[in-house]
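Example (one chain per record):
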Amino acid sequence: MLTLHAADLLIAVPGAGPVPGGAVVVDGGTVAALGLYEELAAAFPRARVRRWPGVITPGLRQWHGTYLLKRAYHPDPREYDELGDRPLTGERLEALDMTDTRWAGSVRRGLQQMLRHGTTAVAIGSDPVVSTAVARSGLTPVSILGAPGILPDEPDLDPFRNAYGLADAVAGPLAVGGRADFAVFGVPDEAALTEAGAGTCVATVLAGRLVYRRR
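Predicted structure:
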């Protein structure tokens, strides 16, 4: 099925110029067209239309996937009153009774949190548990070579914390014929996005599938 995703602004290739009133046409898991909404709506009249507030960008890349998934615990919502909703590391992690089942739940929730931050690609090492979980999630695994250092305060789910702007944060450009991995952020433009961060994500699309939508 064809789906036309439209937003206030489309940034298909960071640095190449945004498209006000832009849209992405998805055919299965592939980008079928990019451009102005009016033109694409006329060219693909049978496409289902999804309208989003804000900016469509390529999906983001999370460099520190292994750290976030194997050296940090993501609390279950039922534990928020006791543990809070941020990843736990260091002494707070060591104080927990971490069974295999609990780790598996943490990894699953960590991947869900990445999707909530517009992430479509994650750098991982050779850990089989992480590799399997990433494969099941649909996120694209990428090499950890070239990853920047971990921030000293805590691991962060926001790829902008370790990036120099949008061009450095995305996994790659959106291109016709390429995989339909992108995110939508509830901000007016690129400057606002890099300042506010990936927590403004309102939707994430992996290979054409809507895998996260803010309620």
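Caption: The two ends are 24 Å apart (CA to CA).
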